[in-house]
Amino acid sequence: MKKKASLLLASLLVSATVLGACSSSNTASNTTNNTQTSSEGTEGKETANLSIFYFDDAGVVKMDSPVLKKAAELTGVSLNNVASAGGEEKQAYNLMLASGTLPDIVSYYTADLNSIGAEGALEPLNDYIDKLAPNFKKFLDEHEEVRKTITAADGNIYAIPFVADGSASTGWFIRQDWLDKLNLETPKTVDEYYEVLKAFRDQDPNGNGKKDEVPFMQRDNVVGAYSLLPLWDAYHSFYIKDGKIVYGPYEDQFKTGIENIARWYKEGLIDKEIFTRSKAREVLLGNNTAGSTHDWFASTSNFNQSLSKDVPGLDFIPFAPPASSSGKVYEVGKRAQLSGFGWGVTAQSKHIEEAVKYFDFWWSEEGRRMFNFGIEGESYTMVDGKPKFTEEVLSQPAVNGYLVEAFGAQLPKMGAWQDFSYEEQWTNEIALKGIKEYQDKNIISNDYVLPTLNFTKEEQKRLDALKGQIDTYFAEKAQTWVMGGENVETGFDAYKAQLKNLGVEEYIQIYNDAYARYLSIQ
């Protein structure tokens, strides 16, 4: 394994020549002798200072936070971050690989970790998990879907992942105050929804005497109007249909969906600036012109409070998805169980066992509580056997960001298990009610958030070559149709033919090959 890792590093040095040339002598000094010799700790236990690469959007993450200090006391393992300061995350990662000496732990995208793991840079963790990680092993035994997802194409586990908790993420919202004013019922079908949006357009529900209402808005310029596609059983990306992965924009049902969206857009039911508008919720709810949307529960429901003075009586609430044209009631948005981040141990490390035991700590009851809530007595207290955030924490405008910055809790690239109860404490009642309805009524579909698939090196190379041209063509053509620049009926066959020419069927097949491997893992 050590020889294989050395060969990999040699190849990485060649491929990263430019990046390596940009690195300074400081980079080499930071990545040489990264692991300090174990010594006797203050509490009489053996300690180890392990080097780690951890870089996020804000840059190099400090390892002296209250949470990580407390973990060091409990585990005997402290961390020393060797990520190069400055630049972007990918550049820092490549500089680390090009340095020639890897740290003990690498925290990064799990797909990349699996890739360098298959080349020998990371230690396979399967046996270590069985022998040294009882908490994480118990989790995997109880969550087969996670075990399958984190198993690389070669059958090994190279990274311990970040795992989210909860299922509901997004839902449909509507102006209940407008429904009440116009004496309308909450729409239960796509046809009823269409009639309500027309009423919002025509009957002046904001009462300003102007026809300025925007019946449907969407803040995501990429998804945009395509968030309406499920109303006609269509979708804008990959999803599972009859046990196979299909590409939504290549399905015949997409034609029906995009035709109806184009009609709604022409009729003024959809925000005319849906592909370009910035901060649609802030702008359109703020000027009392927005009627409905599909978006995240927590952030969208918060506007009822934040805009209460500017828009008196604003009552923007979740409602069950309108039944589609085929009569199905379902929600395509689902909280992804795996974020795509995690951490692994390099094959060069002299402290693989210590690292695995450290990883496992975060899956224990105490470790999980620290990861989610921080330090008892400082960020939370125990009430009836459950952690409850202090008022100081709950008063923050961005609770999650505050936990990361002040305590080092909720670090998103650690291999740990989130606890949804941490989020419940700072989510308002409107959102919680919507989340409960969607979850209790089993509205959320499992078919529209694919498991994280692991591709071989050859497959990933082909995906990289195909994805850009296919996605770009779809986006350009679909936007042209929505905005009326071309007729869907006359152009759809040629559109499908061009997708085929661009390799969409190979694109789909690669996904299905990886999905078949995922399903076959025992």
UniProtKB/TrEMBL annotation:
PANTHER family linked to this entry: ARABINOSE-BINDING PROTEIN-RELATED, POLYGALACTURONAN_RHAMNOGALACTURONAN-BINDING PROTEIN YTCQ
Signal sequence range: 1-20
SUPFAM superfamilies from the UniProt entry: Periplasmic binding protein-like II
Keyword Lipoprotein: yes
Protein name: Carbohydrate ABC transporter substrate-binding protein (CUT1 family)
Keyword Kinase appears in the UniProt entry: no
Annotated source species: Paenibacillus pabuli
Native organism taxonomy: Bacteria, Bacillati, Bacillota, Bacilli, Bacillales
Keyword list, A-Z: Cell membrane, Lipoprotein, Membrane, Palmitate, Signal
Pfam families recorded: SBP_bac_8 (PF13416)
